[in-house]
Design brief:
The chain is an alpha+beta fold and 86 residues long. Helices cover 16% and strands 33% of the residues. It has a three-stranded antiparallel β-sheet with strand order 2-3-4. It has a two-stranded antiparallel sheet with strand order 1-5. The longest helix is centred in the middle third of the chain and has 10 residues. It is globular, with a radius of gyration of 12 Å. The N and C termini lie close together (7 Å).
């Protein structure tokens, strides 16, 4: 999933997701094949840290990003970023 616009002060911004260069691949235990897989993972981890495997095309590296999805962070969605498949 391609990380697109990241809202300031959102869980995505706070935990280091980068707009337009990061791609969420999955977790250490789960590959995310569809946006529904990603949405389900975020629902399962509301308020609970989840480690995502993230590829960054600018740096050409993979890294782990620990993020806490939170529907009550003050903005839209649980992460405060748009993701697109492809």
């Amino acid at each position: 999933m391609a990380v697109q616009d990241v809202a300031p002060n959102s869980p995505a911004a706070t935990d280091g997701l980068q707009a337009h260069t990061d791609y969420v691949i999955g977790t250490m235990h789960r590959h995310l094949e569809t946006q529904a897989d990603f949405s389900r993972l975020m629902e399962e981890h509301q308020g609970v840290p989840v480690q995502l495997l993230v590829y960054n095309r600018h740096w050409d590296t993979c890294r782990e990003v620990t993020i806490v999805p939170d529907k009550n962070w003050g903005g839209q969605g649980s992460l405060g970023c748009d993701v697109g498949y492809g």
